[in-house]
Amino acid sequence: MPLPKNRIVTGQIIYFRAEIETCPDCGRKLKRHHAAWKKNISTLRGVFQVWNMAYHSPHEECGNLSRYFRSAQADALCMKHTSYGFDVLALVEELRFKRHLTIAGIT
Ligand SMILES: [Zn+2]
């Protein structure tokens, strides 16, 4: 019997906002603009649906309406183009290179 296409079931949904709340140029409050990215991230504590929201300063006096701020904390959860958290990568590296397990042994 074939396995279902997507076996990952997400748990909690987490939204991240930019660490700064005010524009560094004019000092006014930033506004949410769009989702910079959304991923299902697999960690050792479960699978989370993570949204990293992009904020910008909507005031034309700042001169850069397309400069977006997003959460560095969310970006630090996993590498770009992957869905595994750094804790999973560290565990796999330890099992593979320190304990010399095979890939089949890890899985
Ligand atoms: Zn501004």
Class based on secondary structure composition and strand pairing:
alpha+beta
Strand order of the largest sheet: 1-3-2
Terminal Cα span:
20 Å
Query: What is the 3D form?
Result: elongated
Count every beta strand, where a strand is a DSSP E run of 2 or more residues.
3
Model regions low in confidence, pLDDT < 50 over at least 5 residues: none
Mean of all residue-level pLDDT scores: 90
Beta content comes to 25-35%
Present as ligands are: zinc ion
Order of secondary-structure elements: EEEHHH
Q: How many helical elements?
A: 3
How many independent structural domains?
1
Rg, nearest Å: 19 Å
Major sheet description: 3 strands, mixed
Helix content: 10-25%
Short description:
The protein is α+β, with helices and mostly antiparallel strands and 107 residues long. It has helices spanning 72-75, 86-98, 103-106; strands at residues 13-16, 31-43, 46-56. It has one domain.
Describe it.
There is one protein chain. The protein is α+β, with helices and mostly antiparallel strands and 107 residues long. It has one domain. Helix content is 20%, strand content 26%. The chain has three helices and three strands; from the N terminus they run βββααα. Strands 1-3-2 form a three-stranded mixed sheet. The protein is elongated, with a radius of gyration of 19 Å. The two termini are 20 Å apart. Bound molecules: zinc ion (ZN).
